[in-house]
């Protein structure tokens, strides 16, 4: 596998220096393979290959043909669903059922954008007598994508589906912690007929391959999903090169539960929205804000559900798997230790179910905290683990203040039966997606998605992503 991880201009390439990185299965802590440690020379070659593809066969392909290739890739992914599911679950530790959902979502991205490829229409503008004005949308050119480890296959679909549909040629740097499904997806792309250079992948470290990609002067657009810290670095590099960027940097998304809510539904969804992918979801519902008049009762019922949660190996298909790595495990456990020393009370904790084979895995108990102070890190910072903070609010104005009271603004769930309040809250809460009486962490390929504030900017998913990955050109014709 190790020399099958850097894919440039239609071939697997052994990087200069021939160094490798070890891949680990989070469920057991065991080594499962090696990938190549690509760096600046490979990024240079990948960007050049993408530029040539954009100016050559790929860039000149009719939209309908591009769409067909994407659709074919979607079908190939569905045809290989079992194999990809197992690979994704092994590599990330996520329970098999979730991994299967991710592979289907990946296929769906290519189906959705395959169908959209020939529907990117322009506009005309009434102007002076004797003129015709058109606005045409063109591909940006070479797009650079840096993706995280939490949803490798879905991120591959999300980034490349939209970018390729409109004719960009792409260079993608997956996360070193999890990229096996991405490498298989690249093989499938080749099999269905994507021409050399349309898709290039360079594995390696963020500080090396990632930085080389974000610093590259011949990129026309950067898309990044990951931590706010690295997002800032990527944006600085983009600024140096005057390159636009789309950033998706996580959140501290709330479920806002009013006294008149359907409590059973709100509880079920609050648990599901947090434990999905063991809390390692940018749009995880990691805060539950509860109207004070129902706080005790609601929290007791939520705690009862929470106690039933189990974390274990991906193949056991429990509520949670392990977190991605030892580093992340220590990071999340650090939040739990600090909460303890700050005297924050645990309302409920799930169980870890391991055996001899999985005792070296990176597990964290699903944990619900009660009465988390509004300024505590559990209420404000992204834990990226199965940790839920319950916080009471007094009234609607207070709920808005609390919901908007972090640096983030990615998504929000609002639970109330009052139609007028649903509308007021949807307008007042600053987040890229608002769900009323529901929640969709990560789902919904059709639904534009992105942040306010530190959650990032730009929109991916849906038809909206096609705007990000294209640029408009105004053509003014003086026809007399
Ligand atoms: P990260 O460092 O931001 O990694 C995201 C991607 O950026 C990876 O592909 C990474 O490569 C790459 N990268 C790292 N340093 C880079 C640099 N200097 N220049 C360009 N690219 C670089 O995230 P992480 O360390 O994996 O996780 C840390 C925290 O970020 C998590 O605890 C969580 O809070 C947050 N996070 C958020 C999301 C999200 O979906 N919003 C996803 C993941 C993490 P390598 O991994 O190969 O180094
Ligand atoms: Mg990292």
Binned, the helix content reads 25-40%
Low-confidence stretches: none
Choose one word for the global shape. globular
N- and C-termini, Cα separation: 63 Å
Biggest sheet character: 7 strands, mixed
Strand proportion, as a percent range, falls in: 15-25%
Q: Provide a count of the helices.
A: 16
Oligomer: single chain
Walk me through the structure.
- The protein is α/β, with parallel strands linked by helices and 480 residues long.
- 39% of the residues lie in helices and 21% in strands.
- Helix 7 links the parallel strand 8 and strand 9.
- Helix 1 runs parallel beside helix 8.
- The structure holds NADP nicotinamide-adenine-dinucleotide phosphate and magnesium ion.
- NADP nicotinamide-adenine-dinucleotide phosphate is lined by residues 146-150, 173, 175-177, 205-207, 210-211, 214, 225-227, 230, 233-234, 248-250, 282, 331, 382, 384.
